[in-house]
Amino acid sequence: ALTRSAKHFTKSEVECLVKLFDTLVAKASSQFAGAGFDRTVFRDTLYNAFGMTDDVVLDRVFSTFDRDNSGCITVVEWVEGLAVLLRGTLEEKMKYCFAVYDLNGDGYISKEEMFQMLKHSLLIQPADEEPDEGVKDLVEIALKKMASTYLFIPFLLQDYDRDGKLSFTDFEKAVRDENLLLEAFGPCLPDIK
């Protein structure tokens, strides 16, 4: 039984995704007895299909798809996850991206979570600066709603309730003002092509 988000696909598209799922299951280890495929197959598939290369982000995307935390992507998780990834509304994509960045699932993106995501996603660091220090500075800038640059894209984030972490409400307000902020802490959506 698919949820409403899967209705972003036509019946024939769902059938194609199920066929692809069966192909991927055949590649996976037999430990799931044909019920799904594992993290390795998932990561390889997203890398090949969408050019998603950040291992940390891919692990988080896997966790977001794997809603029952079984270590296995089932056919329902596959179709519903791709429905949001490829055809999701802004609201669905905001919830998805927020879940990717909320490493401990507590409903907030803390400074430490921002740090963990950004330190793997930043392309460059100043030559005379320790990488960790540069990331810490960027997190502070983001929380204080000061202009900065992330992968050459200007962005603003605000900790509206000034509690040192971003709630979904904080994130949603910022993204509605600037949609590029969906991926403020790492590339977790397919590129436009």
From TrEMBL:
The record lists the membrane-crossing segments as: none
> SMART domains recorded for this chain?
EFh
Which keywords has UniProt assigned to this entry? Calcium, Metal-binding, Repeat
This chain is encoded by the gene named Efcab1
User: Organism source for this protein?
Assistant: Ploceus nigricollis
Q: Which GO terms describe its molecular function?
A: calcium ion binding
Protein name (database record):
EFCB1 protein
* Residue intervals of the EF-hand domain: 53-88, 89-124
- InterPro entries reported in the protein's UniProt record: EF-hand-dom_pair, EF_Hand_1_Ca_BS, EF_hand_dom, Recoverin
